[in-house]
Amino acid sequence: MKVDVLLGLQWGDEGKGKIVDYLAPRYDIVARFQGGPNAGHTLKFGGKKYVLHTIPSGIFRENLINVIGNGVVIDPITVEKELHLLKETGVSFLKRLFVAKKAHLILPTHRLLDAASEAMKGKEKIGSTLKGIGPTYMDKTGRNGLRVGDILLPNFLDKYNRLKNKHLELLKIYPALYDFPLEAEEAKWFSSLETLKSLQLIDCEYYINEALREGKRVLAEGAQGSMLDVDFGTYPFVTSSNTITAGVCSGLGVAPTAVGEVIGITKAYCTRVGSGPFPTELNDSMGEFLRKEGAEFGSTTGRARRCGWIDLPQLKYAIMLNGVTQIGVTKMDVLNSLSGIRLATHYKYQGDTHTNIPYDITEIPVEPVYETVKGWEQSLEGITHLEDLPKQAVAFLDKIAAYLGVPITIVSTGPEREKLITLPKHFEIF
Ligand code: GDP
Ligand code: IMO
Ligand code: MG
């Protein structure tokens, strides 16, 4: 068997959690391969809303195994909080939540360093979620990090203290910021490690490859989005991991030849939270409309998300990087009342028209060129079959699929689990 991949094609928050939760019963294992508690994946069913940060979005499906892969960075405090919520909901997880021993740990001082680094940047700040993601990946690649498997070692405390003291030394280069209750946070951290120990700690690479050999179906769940990829995103306004398909190989320990379908998720428009370039951003009443209608406020930090039109050159870039084989379009319902919908098809910069994203997009003002299509001006509520979609909605989806050259197989029309249309990959219209 091969690993199927589901990931975000924009700047995150595309609705990945909802779609993973929907597709999960088709799989035996759902595995997160990168990122950490900077992610906020929202699931809605049974009249309730759940937000997951580190735990994969397959956890609510009975009998399904959920794996937190080695490419993920883990804050045991967040994991404990999420597990507490699951317990309250009556979800059993002890036998089916697996954590890679090679995943790196986020220390309380990583969060402190994140905050200090952002404060020092002032106006140039990344807009980090302040969960300690950047500093933890820096320690990983700098070969100083602590890994989940280390918590079982007799000299763990020594290792912890060595790293913490290094962080405290580093912090001296930053101006003292604010009171961070380090001792209290450390106490919580150590206590939550006991919860982490009670989960099944695995050699993720052997586990996943063995599962594939046994014919198990695996879905890799991405966090963030392709434009936040540390190599190909709008650097430096990115996160610190490879959010693209390539990250699945290093984040779970599978070979590139083991990757099967790649499902890319995009909103019917576009959002970004945090700083950095966003060519189709709308700083007007239409942007405000999308934010309000789409309830565009961060699932992790509650910050207002920046909103704009769908950006086809940007999506084409993400499709190329990820080898996307199927597209899921979410939040179609947010556009219900619009008489016209815009799609960026080109960019103007340096006196010419382009469809590529310039290397220095953070410096060069990029002006999008739009095409406008008719809106459907009716509710999509309750539509679960393509035949029932208004023809203008089909035309809008058709334009996206034709531009990108990849079939649309999922159309989401509301936050709830069942508000969705699925289409066979070979379906003619797309
Ligand atoms: P993720 O990080 O990609 O999992 O996405 P988030 O959960 O951060 O943000 C997506 C938001 O849109 C959540 O509040 C979802 O409940 C909501 N959502 C997902 N799909 C749809 C949809 O088709 N329509 C509407 N209106 N909301 C959706
Ligand atoms: P999900 O998985 C949207 C953004 C932050 C910031 C930048 C760096 O829910 O789609 P970091 O905390 O990683 O150092 O922040 O990346 N960011 C996200 N934006 N959705 C996310 O995750 C994000 N995770 C990080 O806002 O601009
Ligand atoms: Mg999110």
In brief:
The chain contains 11 helices and 20 strands.
Verbal overview:
This protein is an alpha/beta fold. The protein is built from 11 helices and 20 strands. The longest helix has 16 residues, at 182-197. Residues 8, 12-18, 40-42, 44, 295, 299, 330-331, 333-334, 412-415 line the site of guanosine-5'-diphosphate (GDP). Residues 12-13, 39-41, 299 line the site of magnesium ion.
Explain the layout of strands and helices:
Blueprint: E1 3-8, H1 16-23, E2 29-32, E3 41-45, E4 48-52, E5 65-68, E6 73-74, H2 76-89, E7 97-100, E8 104-105, H3 108-121, H4 133-141, H5 156-170, H6 182-197, E9 200-202, H7 204-213, E10 218-221, H8 246-252, E11 259-267, E12 270-272, H9 285-293, E13 306-308, E14 310-311, H10 312-322, E15 326-330, E16 340-349, E17 352-354, E18 367-374, H11 391-404, E19 408-412, E20 420-422
Parallel strand pairs: 1-10, 1-11, 2-5, 2-10, 5-7, 6-8, 7-9, 11-15, 14-16, 15-19
Antiparallel strand pairs: 3-4, 12-13, 16-17, 16-18, 19-20
This protein binds guanosine-5'-diphosphate, 6-O-phosphoryl inosine monophosphate (IMO) and magnesium ion.
Residues 8, 12-18, 40-42, 44, 295, 299, 330-331, 333-334, 412-415 line the site of guanosine-5'-diphosphate.
Distance between the termini: 27 Å
Q: Major β-sheet, in short? A: 10 strands, mixed
In spatial order, strands of the major sheet run 9-7-5-2-10-1-11-15-19-20
Unique bound compounds: guanosine-5'-diphosphate, 6-O-phosphoryl inosine monophosphate, magnesium ion
Total number of strands: 20
How much of the sequence is in beta strands?
Answer: 15-25%
Name the average pLDDT. 96
Which structural class best describes the helix and strand composition?
alpha/beta
Radius of gyration: 21 Å
Tell me the overall shape.
globular
Low-confidence stretches: none
Question: Share of helix among residues?
Answer: 25-40%
Number of helices, where a helix is a run of at least 4 consecutive DSSP H or I residues: 11
Oligomer: single chain
